[in-house]
Amino acid sequence: MGIELYYWPGLQGRGEFVRLALEEAGLAYTDVARDPDGGMDAMMAAMDDPAVVHPPFAPPFLRDGKILVGQTAAILMHLGAHHGLAPRDEAGRLWTHQIQLTIADLVAEAHDTHHPVDAGTYYADQKKEALRRAAAFRTQRMPKFLGWFETILDRNPDGPAHLVSGAVTYADLSLFQAVEGLRYAFPHAVGRVLKRAPHVAALARAVARRPRIKAYLASERRVAFNTDGVFRHYPELDDPV
Amino acid sequence: MGIELYYWPGLQGRGEFVRLALEEAGLAYTDVARDPDGGMDAMMAAMDDPAVVHPPFAPPFLRDGKILVGQTAAILMHLGAHHGLAPRDEAGRLWTHQIQLTIADLVAEAHDTHHPVDAGTYYADQKKEALRRAAAFRTQRMPKFLGWFETILDRNPDGPAHLVSGAVTYADLSLFQAVEGLRYAFPHAVGRVLKRAPHVAALARAVARRPRIKAYLASERRVAFNTDGVFRHYPELDDPV
Questions:
Q1: Is the full-model pTM beyond 0.95?
Q2: Do A57 and B148 touch (CB under 8 A)?
Q3: Are the beta carbons of B39 and B33 closer than 8 angstroms?
Q4: Is the ipTM reported for this complex over the cut 0.90?
């Protein structure tokens, strides 16, 4: 049985960070909830199965042989260790994971720009609060996060082409995805911030050109960004033009 | 040179999850920002040192020999692997970490109950929004999180006394701290929810009785909960009495 990814169909969301790693590693996988032989029923059955000893809290989760693992960063740590997307030494792996956790924080804060007070109701029900949270995100948090990524790229002893060492890791792929998401959600604000983060912008361009990623992005496996995902484009939440 | 913990003085915050692991492991450590020979200047100097190749994004961070590591969950993964607070096998370590990441999500959401729209301004400036976010947290999110912890304790093949295997891990310590924080911040709401999570309540009691934890909690090293930390008691954010 090959690798199975379980994630909500119809949106990129947090599952997309896992898809990018699976694609870059060249692994065969089934995207269960989107598969004709699977679907949402199969995903919910896997999540709610009372016989599962390690049930995930929420999608995404991944089945890889005997391992069933949830939490995006934990899934990536597993894939990184077994499929060449992280350094072999322990210190390098820890640093890669530390970066991933910081990307996860950025992603969670980007999500909360459109759902600041209740993840269980619609954006329209919290639009006023969203305007305020998005302003703080655009002016304070996004520059701080992207500034930190720029700093660590600048300090990488192996050069600024990668976050860790001189080779691609899952952290590079995730930073690409975060930048793409911010570009979709906040095109004006991120353009302003990326001018001061040229290494980050260059890394995102380089990841998009990697042969397997390029092929993936052009395929029907890549869901388009939309307003069901973590990153959502609501023009009123971006910088005023 | 011994282990150095860097975290904001005067509050428990995310640093407390690291302190509990250091204490349970019986490790000698310096809490730099609270140390007479250190202080905030020493912490900021360590964080902003341009010679640091792996700078942390934010406190807490830990220096352990040559390792400088930030992000609470990454710090705990490091301590768990080297100081007996995680299983030895890879699958057990990954599961422990997956649980920790879910605790981290709970903690982040607990924080956002009092800072739903702008982490850079005061609670008083977002009290109306906080009332709404706290209601969603108490009624939807807290029961979902604590329910998941109850489920995985119930399914642990080694029994419900520990989250992972039959021994204490950093995840047990962190769940104790999360429960303590929720008890401080939302005493009425958490009492209601814990009635349906008896394994979680029992685990928290058992951790508090562990000799090193008990000694730590009674020492001056344990900062009291207060309204500067992640968990804050504002009666208006709890269940109406």
A1: yes
A2: yes
A3: yes
A4: yes
